[in-house]
Specification:
Blueprint lengths: L21 H13 L5 H4 L8 H23 L20 E2 L9 E2 L2 H17 L17
Helix pairs in contact: 1-3, 3-4
GO molecular function, one term: kinase activity
Keywords: Kinase, Metal-binding, Transferase, Zinc
InterPro entries: MOB_kinase_act_fam, MOB_kinase_act_sf
Length: about 140
């Protein structure tokens, strides 16, 4: 269990919304609707009078947090030895390319691929140009 919560490995702390902000209120509304057994289509519909970019940003961050927790629980079972390829079954292999360290699509063991992916997503979420923390400031072309 200690390995799962090692920040340098795979677990990352949840992104939080500042209490009292509009995004915090949207987050609470999203959590309540997802935990109440409501129809998922209705749960993700834009609430009346809310900004679509803010609503999408809240759901992206929540999705990242949930995936991060799920991955944290299984990462000890998927090692470079047991999962030498990042694949989607026998027909699909995922290769990493970031144009920085990996200039061309590169086959990587699944844990290494997932760590790079989660780091990349976290950078995107923390990028103020993509996900500004000020409500109503998301760029239109992102959505």
């Amino acid at each position: 269990l200690k390995q799962v919560f090692n920040k340098d490995k795979t677990f990352r702390p949840k992104r939080k919304f500042e209490p009292g902000t509009q995004r915090f209120e949207l987050h609470k509304r999203a959590q309540a609707s997802l935990n109440s057994g409501v129809d998922l289509k209705a749960a993700v519909q834009l609430p009346s009078g809310e900004d679509q970019n803010d609503w999408v940003a809240v759901h992206v961050v929540d999705f990242f947090n949930r995936i991060n927790l799920i991955y944290g629980t299984i990462c000890e079972f998927c090692t470079e030895r047991t999962c030498p390829v990042m694949s989607g079954g026998p027909k699909y292999e995922y290769r990493w390319q970031d144009d920085l360290r990996y200039k061309k699509p590169t086959a990587l063991p699944a844990p290494q691929y997932m760590n790079l992916l989660m780091d990349w997503i976290e950078v995107q979420i923390n990028n103020e140009d993509i996900f500004p923390t000020s409500v109503g400031k998301c760029k239109e072309e992102v959505i």
